[in-house]
User: Fold these one by one.
Assistant:
Number 1:
Amino acid sequence: MSNALGRLITAFNPSKIGVLRTMLAATLVLFNASSPAADHGDSPLVRADPAADFGDVLAWMSPDASKLYLLASVVRNATADSRFSDAVQYVFHTRSSASFGATEADPVNVICTFEGADEQTISCWAGDESYVSGNADDPSGLSSDDGKIRVFAGLRNDAFYFNSKGFNATRTAVRDAAPSLSFDAAGCPTLDTATSNALVGLLTSTDGGPAQDAFGNANILVLALEVDKSIVTTGGPIVAVWGSTRVRP
């Protein structure tokens, strides 16, 4: 696996890493750029099928812009017994164009499915060009015969960071203070320096001490792919990426 994807998989290691309910779209200029989208802590309806709901979708280029890296996560608070769903397709949608805002070429989808309840087998297609199938839980990745796609799928620490206690304390303080605040023409509160500093202090602390990550001890299932740029740039060097899950046909 290339150094960039390998570093990411290492960072998401077990000791520390529908259609999507809200479409997650990101546009990448094909140099060293990245764009994340996140969705954690959903409603009960979404939580009922956690293996079919993306928590994060990330896309970025390799340093030499020859590879596109795609990553999605599912199953918040995953355990060693958690599995990807065998009832859905995990899809990274891509569309490319010659310049920003220009007419886009036909979409190229990267689609992955899983089989099995214990040791799972993954199958991934990158457009009509490349295919890989096998056990992808080795952090070094599983490569297609043509070398154009490589995939890892497995348990990692949830790298999403959120100081939920600090956020909730700030929200409560703002709600309680709202009746005494003045608002500008746009409806935004005007804050003096002391109030602003107090709110920043709440956001950056937990119960008066250092900020604590609510996801720090939580694991998640990660699907990560390395895709040769040539597969997704049929229409030009500007590539839009978004993710979805859908019921298998």
Number 2:
Amino acid sequence: MTAEGTPVERRHTWTGFRQRVFGTPQFFRLWSAQVVTSTGDWLGFLAISVVAARLGSGTPEAAIGVVLAARLVPGIFFAQVAGVLADRWDRRRLMVVCDLARAGVLLVVPLVNSVWQLVLVSLALEAFTLLWIPAKEASVPNLLPSGHLTAANSLSMFATYATFPVASLIFARVASRLEDASPDGWLGLLYLDNQGPIFYLDALTFVVSAVLVFSLPLRHRRDPSSPARASVRWEGIFREYREGWRYMVVNPTVRSVNIGLATALIGGGMLIPLALVYAIEVLRVGEQGFADIVTGLSAGVGVGVLVLSLLQRRVHKHRMFARSVTGAGVCLLVASSLGSLPWVVLVAGAVGVCAGGMYVLGFTLLHEHTADEVRGRVFAGLYSVVRLCVVLALVVGPLLAAAFDRISEVLWDRSLDIGFVVELPGVRLTLWLAGLTVVVAGLLARRTQRAQAATDANGTSDSAGSNGAESLEDC
């Protein structure tokens, strides 16, 4: 016997590892499909951005902005409709069709020769993505025991964001090879666009995902008392759309998670446009310092997700969710008050730890406390709210920073002497407001949870969490 063990022993070792980490082979396949599609999404994002810049000629920034808006804005308005369809239709077939459709759309991109055509392509890709996401999220609790949901959401977060550097590396390597390649002969058929082979590779990732999802033993659980939902009756979509939003308001757990995540993202989302400005104007460390802050934040998210996965059985999810949101706000307040880069990087890591825990716990609570019949609509609704809050933060953050900067210059000449000089540029004041917003989000989430606990103690338990279909009838 070798040091590595026999093939049978290695197989048992892999099976045991997969059981501990992924819970079931079925979820491992779904997670693998998510890894592949996320890599494809990021790869397509990079390639489409390059094509948009090329087609934009004199205004590449505007072209990129319009094309990316075509991927971002539809989710605000139509995600919930996609959730209705995910609850009506067979989710496995829906995911397979969406994967194959996205592959087909990507094969068309090399034929695009104008920005408006690229916008149409982006809208089509986003439409199928909007259908795929709620179908996937609604399927997770049906593939593994509830005790593995926290770990499952940690793995899903890893699959979504850790694939970006992988996609970036693939894009860079393929693009460098294409620069040296000669598109002569039959190979010229593939080079309708300089990024053509990248889009073909991207399409292949979605085909692989479709094959993986097709092998899943998903059975759409439905309330036998309402068989009409299994058929496609378009006149009922508006009613089910309204039921989904009402469920999100009536169910205390779902409501607290949505309030916490949405409000926190309004505050935390301001970091996206303002962190670089803060690094340059306040810390005076330039773009390299900004990169260090982002690295600390990203590392913190990874640590938070890992620690939460290891301690999932010892954590009270409701309380820890609210504390994670509040902790992220407090750490953001502290980080935006500091003037030393090493300390800011350290506290940014703490923000990441709390943010990672907030994300994983929020999704786990939704998985555990949402009935299967409405789970697609709940996650689609969250997706819609999240996008709206991020867009709001991206727009409002810079405007607030500019307004606060003028106010600070008039009132305090952008600094205040309280025994030591405190610089008060608009970007710092805006980040303080963002931190306070996140703290308020945590307090609101905790208040909602306490109200639920008081209601349960009085004998009126959360029927929406345990009897989803009945709660809809009561609505």
Number 3:
Amino acid sequence: MARSLFRRGPSYRRGQPLGLNMPFSGWLTLALAGGLAVFWLIRWVLS
């Protein structure tokens, strides 16, 4: 997944940090996935 992001992103080739012109939906998806992962990790640790 990360590799395709690097290949597609013109921002990375220009030397800018990758996240600067990532669309808002991309950040939203990342936040949702991260939240879910943390949620399941905590549930797994506490069980």
Number 4:
Amino acid sequence: MILSQNVNLNLGENNLSGSIPPELGQLSNLKELYLMVNKLSGSIPPELGNLSNLIKFGSIPPELGNLSKLTVLSIYGNRLSGHIPLELGNLSNLTILGLHENQLEGPIPRVFGTLSNLETLLLSDNHLNESNILSGTIPPEFGRLSNLESLSLNNNKLSGTIPLEFGNLSNLKELNLSKNDLCITNELETFFQIRKSKVKSCNIITECAPVNKLINKKETYNCCSLKGVTCIDDHITDINFPNYKLATSIPPELGKLSRLIRLNLSDNFLIGSIPPELGQLSSLKILELYNNTLTGTIPSELGNLSNLNKL
């Protein structure tokens, strides 16, 4: 059969009806299959599981948002690609939404926070590669899902702080946020200890704020990945930025880095004065600020640096 040699089959946006033929499972060379925007019915034939070379199975059609009576939408494990359509937020009667184990990308729609009847939300394992991946932050609107019992967002590329609104999820029994780049605040520590979720603390995000200000990055940027920054147990211990041409002032917030041992900002065209807050760096042993254009006097607070051995 000539069709068996095809690697792409696009039957989308037609007026096809009936069920998906199981014979499609015989197309062993098929890499892309698109059936969106039709009137197909029934379940997906298990024979499609034989398509070992399949890379893409189309995207989620936004028209699904018209199914106002739908209570369960489970289309996991289908290599679906593209963004999650905002129209799914119209499915107000939905109790189970399973979109996991696909190749979805982009942010999680905030409108999911309006699905008040939702009990199970599964969006895990949509991690294909850096360009096709479920990313962004967790919408704080999820805190409105008062009936939610199970939430799985693991193995994606989600980042940032877990919303404080999660503390409102009183019925939550199962939670998996592992294998992301998420962190929790102190306010949510008790909540997550009870549920034993595998997420890290937000110390590193908090401590990164002054470093990110120094290098003109957004506050949620994980500075531990930067060349010149060393972290131990989510605390910054070393900032080594010589000759980075920063041409900015020294952020006073650096004084909050209680575990900092070395601060080297030499040869950077730094301007302004030396912040007295640096005198709070009780662990500091090395402070190097030479070859800059700093002005003013040396703060007397630097005399509090009892561990300092190089200035």
